[in-house]
């Protein structure tokens, strides 16, 4: 029986299916561009939208709204530099996808 985790060309286990990992490794410039551009913006916006759910309101009741707006450059810079500097693009893709999915799921659950 084969494990659900496949090994990539460096011998490490990958959390993505074999075909997705091959596609990412075959097109590193495109994947890095997609992760650093639209992926970083989407992760920052999703985190910004989810922050009022887990951030306390503060004494005036506006900290949960104002801080995500003020922290937007930092929320964008972290996934951007991770995507640009990560040596393992498969892992970077999995991490950024997980961050986006968790934050979007939190917003959708709160809206339901």
UniProtKB/TrEMBL annotation:
Q: Which organism is it from?
A: Amaricoccus macauensis
Listed transmembrane segments: 30-53, 65-85, 92-111
Question: What protein name applies here?
Answer: Uncharacterized protein
**Keyword set for this entry?**
Membrane, Transmembrane, Transmembrane helix
Q: Which domain of life is it from?
A: Bacteria
- This protein's record includes keyword Transmembrane: yes
């Amino acid at each position: 029986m084969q494990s659900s985790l496949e090994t990539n060309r460096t011998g490490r286990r990958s959390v993505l299916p074999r075909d997705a990992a091959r596609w990412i490794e075959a097109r590193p410039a495109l994947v890095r561009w997609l992760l650093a551009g639209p992926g970083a913006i989407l992760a920052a916006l999703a985190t910004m939208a989810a922050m009022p759910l887990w951030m306390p309101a503060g004494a005036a009741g506006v900290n949960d709204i104002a801080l995500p707006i003020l922290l937007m450059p930092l929320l964008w810079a972290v996934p951007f530099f991770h995507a640009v500097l990560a040596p393992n693009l498969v892992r970077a893709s999995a991490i950024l996808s997980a961050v986006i999915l968790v934050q979007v799921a939190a917003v959708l659950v709160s809206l339901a």
